[in-house]
Amino acid sequence: VFRIQLFEIFNYRLNPQAVYASVRVATLSKYALIMQRQEFFQRYGGSIPPDRQSFIHRNFAMAISLYHGYEIVQQHGLRPLYNFLKGVLEGERGSNSTRLELQRQPAFAELWDSLLDKFKPDPNSTLSSTQAAFVGGHPKLSRLLEIVLEHFQSTEDPAERQRTRVIIFSQYRDSVTEIARMLKQHRPLVRCMTFFGQASTGKNSKGLTQKDQLRVMQEFRQGAYNTLVSTCVGEEGLDIGQVDLIICYDAQKSPVRLIQRMGRTGRARQGRIVMLLAAGKEEASYGASLSKRASVNKVILDGFRKLQFYSDTPRMIPTGLQPTVSLRRLDIQQRPAAGGAARKRRA
């Protein structure tokens, strides 16, 4: 559906307007679409009639939303696609013109009906999300479950099984929620918790406050959970020595983010990293990231030979003054709590 709709937009709607040349959907990217729209309106926006501007705006918005859905279904599966399209139809994501245009397409109506049959919650069900049968939407999910279960089941020592930790990364919050829902059906062997940012992405996806983030990390360190399913917010700053397995549910084009993900394991002992990739564009993105990572490593290793530092740094402290360390105790006055007196704490 997405490939057909995108092809129609570019080759039958935008091409006659001299906006975009004929393209192959597999070679597109959301960034390229956004930049092409910006470039077109910067160059021709003031010289075309308002009705044509509106037409082109609507079709670019439609193309960007469709391409986002195309990426989701390729890399993350049908349930995140269902959540994304549900947000579009309910006005939480995308534009009104995109929503109206989608609703006019027979192919989209057929797709949406099939997604409703597969993923719409049963209002009469009394089962919780962990009790109801899990319905996956991507082959990656079953492979991820095999890897996680094998990791914990292969650890025969009960004490070691209590110490070992797993972190799963996905850039898409709906995938994080879906992965956690699947893993929670395998308690107590797998005790998982989600970890993402503070921003909300819709009425059904509230962010974690900083207090909640700190609580989750503390409980993960202490062993209340042995598996953390995280968005990119967990790619840096986590220092947990017991993490023995990192699973990357999607590929990162950025070598820095790839290195940050990999750096969450191997801190206290040897760790293992597993990449789950869909054939095609995601696999190619991972290959490009590895190539860039090799370039970054080469620059770091060659740095001492190529980088030159300015050695003649002038003295900042006036001549004749020699600083000495002075250790002092500070009493910090705290703000009084509601209905209580201020307390002092020693620094």
TrEMBL record:
Source species, domain of life: Eukaryota
InterPro entries per record: FANCM/Mph1-like_ID, Helicase_C-like, P-loop_NTPase
Signal peptide segment: none
Helicase C-terminal domain: residues covered: 140-308
Pfam families registered for this protein in UniProt: Helicase_C
Keywords (A to Z) from UniProt: ATP-binding, Helicase, Hydrolase, Nucleotide-binding
One BP annotation, GO: double-strand break repair via synthesis-dependent strand annealing
SMART domains reported for this sequence: HELICc (SM00490)
GO molecular-function term, one example from the UniProt record: four-way junction DNA binding
SUPFAM superfamilies xref list: P-loop containing nucleoside triphosphate hydrolases (SSF52540)
Protein name (record): Helicase C-terminal domain-containing protein
